[in-house]
Design goal:
The chain is globular and about 60 Å long. Helix content is about 75%, strand content about 0%. The protein has about 290 residues and is mainly alpha-helical. The two termini are about 20 Å apart. α7 runs parallel beside α11 and α9 packs antiparallel against α12. It has 2 domains: about 90 residues, no CATH class; about 200 residues, no CATH class.
């Protein structure tokens, strides 16, 4: 089928994911207007919001040869841009951080700081493997989408896009409510041994640091939350992939603490959010999609 015919067959009404992203944009636009003087880049952020929504409306209301592909894949780029803007929104809106509070919760729970305690099993080989697992987070989440797309299972693809976008945006709200940078910054003075890998560790960590900037993105653990959502959704592809993702999910949960990116309470919060989304999203999606 021609791409234009596909776009026309999709209709000119909003899909569930369109409504979700529009609602999030309305929320962040309200934040920008409310803290206009405190946010140095407020004008640029508002302009980006207006341009993004205008493009979305154009692709929905005026179907063209790019609309079919755009409407399925645009959440990937919009959600990524929303992550980057949180680094600009959180510092002027939320002064200070919740790191010490989260570290105290961890210590009360375990009687030790988990990242410090894990030094006893630290090794360059293990560090290297876990850093690779941690770095493959985004490709792992996207792989389910690519499988569904390649098999032309567009209905399942649309639901998965909604679920993953929902998961990311909920985590961004969490970052705003509980801003924290992680134990590798707060607890650095307590660590006795620096993390060392073999060949790729330092390059991967430095690359992630540049991409993530100075984000307050610990609570909840997006790596835990989104990987659980991808694992649960992988059963749409097949049982074998489901179990592969299960092993990967356990590995990345451990990696987030071992590599000192997250407190254990971040991980617990990510798992709770993922469970809530797995339970609630089907009915939410059905209601939003039926109206489309």
């Amino acid at each position: 089928m021609d791409s234009l015919l596909k776009a026309q067959s999709a209709g000119t009404r909003f899909w569930a994911v369109d409504k979700l992203i529009a609602a999030y944009f309305a929320f962040t636009t309200a934040l920008i207007l409310g803290w206009w003087r405190a946010i140095p880049e407020a004008g640029g952020l508002l302009a980006w919001h207006a341009a993004a929504i205008a493009l979305l409306l154009l692709e929905i209301k005026r179907p063209n040869r790019t609309s079919w592909l755009f409407r399925h894949w645009y959440p990937l780029f919009y959600v990524a841009a929303c992550y980057k803007e949180m680094a600009l929104l959180i510092p002027p809106i939320r002064h200070g951080s919740a790191d010490q509070w989260l570290a105290n919760l961890d210590f009360r729970l375990w009687g030790v700081h988990p990242t410090v305690w894990l030094e006893r099993i630290q090794s360059p080989g293990l560090t290297e493997i876990l850093q690779v697992i941690y770095t493959l987070f985004v490709p792992a989440v996207l792989l389910v989408a690519f499988f569904l797309w390649s098999r032309r299972r567009y209905k399942e693809f649309q639901y998965y896009a909604f679920l993953i976008a929902f998961g990311y945006l909920v985590s961004y709200v969490g970052y705003l409510l509980v801003p924290a940078r992680g134990p590798r910054f707060l607890l650095r003075h307590l660590q006795h041994i620096p993390l060392q890998g073999l060949w790729l560790f330092r390059g991967m960590q430095d690359t992630l640091d540049r991409l993530e900037s100075a984000h307050y993105d610990c609570f909840p653990s997006g790596h835990t939350e989104l990987t659980i959502l991808a694992w649960w959704s992988s059963q749409m592809i097949g049982n074998r992939l489901f179990w592969v993702y299960f092993c990967y999910t356990l590995s990345i949960i451990f990696a987030t603490v071992y590599l000192r990116y997250h407190y254990s309470v971040d991980v617990l919060a990510g798992a709770v959010v993922a469970t809530a989304l797995i339970s609630a999203t089907p009915s939410i999606y059905r209601r939003l999609q039926e109206r489309a």
